[in-house]
Every structure is written in C-alpha cells, then in structure tokens.
Amino acid sequence: MRAAFLIRCSTKKQDYERQVNDLTRLAKKFGYTSSDNMIFGEHITGKDDASKRDRQSIQRLKDAAINKEFDVVLVSEVSRMSRDPMSGRLYVRQLINMDIPVYFRDIDTWTIDPVTGKKVRDAETIIGAAFDAAWKYIKSMKTQIASGRRDELDNNQMSIGQPFFGYKRYGGRDKGKKNSWVINDDAAKVVVDVFEEYVKDGATLKSTALAITAKYGEQFNKKFSIGTIEHILTFEPYCTGIKVVSLTDPDTEDVDEFEVEIPTIITRAMFDKATTKRATNRTARTPYPKQATYILSKLLKCPICEHSLTPQKRGGDKGDKYRLMNGKVAIRWSCMSGINNATDCSSRITISNEKLEAIIWGLVKQELIGFANLNDEDRVAKVEELTDKITNLEMNIANFTSHISNMDRLIERAYSAYMDAPDSVMDIAKDKYYKTLTKCENERAECKDKIEALSAEKLRLENMRTFFNQPTLPKDAIEKAESDPIKMRNLVMELIDKIYPYRITTYVSSATNRIMRNGIVLLEVYTINGIYNVLYDGNQRNNKVAYYISGVYATFQNGRNKFDAYDTGEYFVISHATLVTETEDVDMLVTFNELIKICMQNGWEIDYTYKM
C-alpha cells in the first residue's frame, strides 16, 4: 500500500525533517511504500480556518486522494493536521468519505481499518477530543506568553522585536533590566544628525538620506533610504521618552496599551520643528496645486525619458462626455513629453489607472505592509524564519568566499611549479599552469556572481526582518487607507519610489495560441524592499490576476535595470533559478509566458478587481 505523509511545521527545517523521518520509519513498520512526491507539508504559523480556505497542503492532499494517488495517510501528531478543532474534524470527515484511512501516530488511532476497510468505532470521537486538547494547550500557551509580556511591559521591558534605531537592549542576566531599552550611542548620534540635517534650509528627505549615507553608510554598512529617514523623523518616542505598546489578550481579544519608558534622544522642540517642515515641505513627487491628485501621481515614470506620466480623462460612449469606472471618471496614463515637444521621447504607451491602482495596492498589501496584520506571536515566528534564512545565506557566502581563496592558492602553486620547473618539463608545467589559471579564473568569476546574488537576497531578507521587528503601522492601517484615498496615497508614497511601465508584444494567449500585441503590461516597481516585476494582461475581463516576482530573482532585459552581459530583449534573466523553480541551471532565460508559470508555482499572484 502507498502511504502519504501530512506534515505541518513551524519555521525550523529540523522540525520538517524530523516528521518526515518519523513517518518514513512508521511506513516501513506497517509495510507501506512512500515517496517524496507524496509528502504534503509546509511551514505554517497562525490558525487554520476551513470556513475561509484550506491550507495548500490539505488541498493538495485531497486532490491527490481524489486521483487515487495513495492508499493511506500518516500523521505524526493530531495538531499537525490542524490546530483548529472545527477544521480538523472537517478534514478527517472528508478523508473518511473518500475511503482514505488516516493514522495519527501520537494517539495510535486509525479512522478506517486499512485491512478491512471498515470505519474504526469511536475513532472520530477520540480524534475530535485530541483536536480539542491540542487547541486548549495552544490557547493556554498563548495566555501564559501574554501574561509574561504584560509583566515585562509593566516593568518597562520589551523582549519582542528589535529596539528602534538609536536604542539597544540593556542586556546581561538581570531579568529586571536586560530587556529595557537604553541608548545606543553610535546610532543615537545618527538620529540627532538626521533631525539637524533635515531642518536645514532647502533640505529634503532625499538630500538628508544622501547626506546621512555619505557620513555613516560605511560605519553602519547600509544605505539610509528615504523610508528610513522618514521612519526616524516620525518616531515621536525619541522626544517623549514613552513607547506605546499594544497587547491583545488572547482570551478576551481586548487590546491593552502600555506606556513603556525609554530614554530620550532629541528635544521636543527639534521633533516639532521637523514635523512642521514635513507637513509643509514639497517634493517633486507631489502633484502641482491645480493638478488632480491620484494614488499613483508622480510615481509613474516613462521608461524612455523618465518624465512623470500624465493622467488623462477617458472619453465616454453613447453620448457621454467621459467614461465612468468605479463610479468615477476613468483615467489613463501616458507620457506627454514627446507630444508636447519637451523631449524627443517616442513612448506612446497608455495605462488604465483603475487596473493599475488595484494591482499596485495588491502588491503593497501582499509584499510591503502585509506584516502590519500579524500578531506578536506570528511576528516573532517570522523574524526567526528570516533569521534562519539570513544565516544560511551568510554561510553560503562564506563558503563561496573560501572557495575563491582556494582558487587563488591553486593559481599560486601552479605558477610556482611553472617557475621552478626544470627545462626538460618547462613546457608541460607552463601548459598545466595556464589550464589551472583558466579553470580557476572561471570558477572565481562564477563564485563572485553567486556572492553578489546571495548578498542581494540577504539584503532583501534583512529589510524584511527590519519590517517585522519595527512595525510602525497600526493593525487597521490597510482598512483605513482603503476608505481614504489620501491615506492610501500616503502609504503608497512611503513604500514605492517609482514605477516604469512597459508594453509587451511577445505574450502568447493560452486561449487562442496567438501573440497578443496590445494590453499586455510589465511594471518595474522600485520599492522600499527592492525592485518587483509585475506582469498582467489588461485584456482580462473575468479572471483578473496579476503576477509578480522580486527583482532579486528576475531581471527584465528591456528594463532600466537589465544585465549588460545579456542582449536586450523582451525576456527575463532568472538568477539562481533553483530558488524559484525546479531546474539544475544556475541562471535561466525565460519568456513572459514562462515567467508567469514560475510566479504561479510560487504563489506570487495578485487578485485585483475594479468596477466597470
């Protein structure tokens, strides 16, 4: 008989491997066969809710069961199927209805006898009680954790997340002090300089970011972006000495606020001066006074001349002066610099505002501020996951660096052997030296490319970890922004620097198998978290889905960030392809259609809607 494994684990790889090893031994004990493609599992945190949607591993398991791809399901622990009693009971019942026996190792219980094919008496009752017990245990743990956090916050200590820039933890072994925030002298000096630089006459967020990066970038090994400067300038506890922390009671879901005392770094007068300037300071990304403001105003740039795209009202049908969408006058964006003879720009691309706003807002929610909805437990788990990934990348970088050193030593040895060789074997030694040199130089170049790619990915993950460690958005930020266009625009402006749209002319429609030369768009989105490539078919009417992939993995060779080593064209270079798809190739060249498939495989999709 063929056994399928259902796995559920936290952020640690060891937990996943332990479950697989345990279930593999169990399958052998029962005399079942098993295979890697019958392992259904994923790293998961938070709560299951079958009333909304099954998690991916459960859905894939049920699909495989329908196709008769296995005979039994083995689960190491009841909680690995679900931590929600209702969802767990539902999954068990669905598999029973499919005549699939399920065995729970921790309670030694089958739902169906695999030999007779008959339902095991009281099995559902026993398993249901186990689901209840697992849920109560987890609830108890959350209560204990919340109680411990309340005690910490009452004593001016914060153990969750990293201290905001300018602070560090007291440290040591004294439980009454070790998690208190104290001033980090080096970082605090930067904070003071940020405020002093920004309040200077003529200074902007951009000029401040450049000045601070020039002064402290090497010391802190980082680039101080506009977003970083903005976060520093808006962190009021720098002057109040009070950090407000919200904590949700897991039993009542009531939200308590704690005022935690921290040292001040700047004066109230300095903070107010910077705040006043921020409220009145105009930047180039702000529309002119008489120009209507849209969510993406001044963010959309022409990929040819880099001028901001201009919004235009769309003409109506059947005698209507303007076309209406979402209850408003429909807008399209286009570059007018060439038309107005300001430049010789030849761009004639036009983009629908309504589709574009929905897609960009979807990207913001999914990739840039999705962390705002996480509770403290999930936030800690995410930080641990990112830390593990960063550590792994650092190990890989160290390994490649070490390999480069080894190649240098091989070259030195080959050269020494060549120079010291007797005349009788001089030609042989010379030939061996040049072969060694060529081979080692190629490997060194390959290692350097990998180090560069891994370093870029490490920086992206470090930025994400900073997001999770230093949340500055309230939990209802998305909800409030969606009801207020001004708040939505402000959020988008903080997180996105610019967007370059490109018209794609090589996309092949899956419905007609023909090339579509109109309505296919690629967006090159420059964000606080790096570049994202967003792909969508503007001709879609029913299934409105956009696809996206980080610039760490994919580079558009007709874009502004293209690789010089490859020819220009409407295709993508996938760096370290093994990270995003099943292949043995380090780098891949893929078409628009192939990139969409990669995005779908990884779940990088944005469902967007707009009303006609």
TrEMBL record:
Query: What keywords is this UniProt entry annotated with?
Result: Coiled coil, DNA recombination, DNA-binding
**Where along the sequence do coiled-coil regions lie?**
437-464
Q: Where is the Resolvase/invertase-type recombinase catalytic domain?
A: 3-150
| Any one GO molecular function term | DNA strand exchange activity
Gene3D superfamilies tied to this protein: Putative Large Serine Recombinase, Chain B, Domain 2 (3.90.1750.20), Resolvase, N-terminal catalytic domain (3.40.50.1390)
Pfam families registered for this protein in UniProt: Recombinase, Resolvase, Zn_ribbon_recom
The keyword DNA-binding appears for this protein: yes
Instruction: Say yes or no: keyword Acetylation present.
Output: no
Supply the PANTHER family for this chain.
DNA-INVERTASE FROM LAMBDOID PROPHAGE (PTHR30461), SERINE RECOMBINASE PINE-RELATED (PTHR30461:SF2)
Q: What is the name listed in the Swiss-Prot or TrEMBL entry for this protein?
A: Recombinase family protein
Question: Species name for this entry?
Answer: Bacteroides caccae
